[in-house]
């Protein structure tokens, strides 16, 4: 006689299987995702397809309903690819207090002023709190409807009553459905709430904006399937110590994912910054030792960023390495290259401080050359020319390597008045160093095309 199959459990997020139930998946660390498997299933019989929903050739489908509709905020539309698409689900994630609710309230008000009815559902604040913020930021309009609800069925009732042209949910982790067990914010609840709202939005052609929380490591809270359900995933981030904010597209079914929108938090709300070229440069009129300008890429936009370095001698056995806005491991590697290839031996007995101006974070290797030149300038106490910009990645062999978007970076530097651009054409770090500390009236070095 065949032995009956042993009961088993599997994770709905990553597919892990085991013989015991756990509250937290041992593989992907997701809570509440372990379900029993092996239950008998019934076969699904084919269903008749109505004539209106019959499959048609792709050339027979109409694309007028899938065009972008601008929201009135140029930087937000830039990241979306031109605006909101009817029936599209957009997930906006970011850390607490970064300004997600302020941004979406401004988007809702701009869309309402264009004649479309907007429903803003807040599960985190009361209607009075949202009204006070709207008064402060000037986001009041008669076509902007506001509700404070945490029950999914009630939210759907508001949608039926208002019939909005745009639906904003702040946030998806605060809404709960009676059809699913668990507290709001748990994977099962987030999956049920998001799936229902997205289905209603697509059936009625309503653009849907969802606010999503993030975890300690910066990933979007809830099940991974949430990012697969939505059409667009936007990341809204920025340094809390500065007023600058960036919106980046991590996923976009209707446009590019290499765009970035720039905003500034003010006392009157959030304002878009169409040209942030001068936000990351110091205001000093005279050259200062330990500073160098690079050209970074934020999406398709080239931005000049000033890197500052300070080198101070110390008698401590372990010199300090303090960085802000740059990768600490990358700076440690550059210090080793400078000490070995350029004979800057005093770095081993000095405290080194490296920072960016304006609070922007440089994560790309294209800033290596500017960081190295700023450190060398601080060591020699010799300022670099203010008309110089450095672009390039530095290898462990002291080679200056080319980076992506070299032509675009050089063109932006030339537009802003940088007559000397040092990049991969110089070949080595020693050549770049000697070129940077020579006379300011040098012939401009062009970056290669990639």
From TrEMBL:
CDD domains in the record: RadA_SMS_N
**What SMART domains would the database entry show?**
AAA (SM00382)
Which InterPro entries does this chain map to?
A: AAA+_ATPase, DNA_repair_RadA, Lon_proteolytic, P-loop_NTPase, RecA_ATP-bd, Ribosomal_Su5_D2-typ_SF, Ribsml_uS5_D2-typ_fold_subgr, Rubredoxin_2
Which SUPFAM superfamilies does the UniProt record give?
P-loop containing nucleoside triphosphate hydrolases (SSF52540), Ribosomal protein S5 domain 2-like (SSF54211)
Any Pfam family hit: Zn_ribbon_LapB
Residue numbers spanned by region Lon-protease-like: 351-450
Q: Which domain of life is it from?
A: Bacteria
Sites binding ATP sit at 94-101
Where is the motif RadA KNRFG motif annotated in this sequence? 251-255
Q: Does the keyword Glycoprotein apply?
A: no
Q: Which residues form the RecA family profile domain?
A: 65-214
- Record keywords: ATP-binding, DNA damage, DNA repair, DNA-binding, Hydrolase, Metal-binding, Nucleotide-binding, Stress response, Zinc, Zinc-finger
Q: What's the domain remark here?
A: The middle region has homology to RecA with ATPase motifs including the RadA KNRFG motif, while the C-terminus is homologous to Lon protease.
Which purpose does this protein serve, as stated in its record? Plays a role in repairing double-strand DNA breaks, probably involving stabilizing or processing branched DNA or blocked replication forks. DNA-dependent ATPase involved in processing of recombination intermediates, plays a role in repairing DNA breaks. Stimulates the branch migration of RecA-mediated strand transfer reactions, allowing the 3' invading strand to extend heteroduplex DNA faster. Binds ssDNA in the presence of ADP but not other nucleotides, has ATPase activity that is stimulated by ssDNA and various branched DNA structures, but inhibited by SSB. Does not have RecA's homology-searching function.
Family membership noted in the UniProt record: Belongs to the RecA family. RadA subfamily.
Q: What is this protein called?
A: DNA repair protein RadA
Q: Give the organism the record lists.
A: Protaetiibacter mangrovi
Name of the gene encoding the protein in the UniProt record:
radA
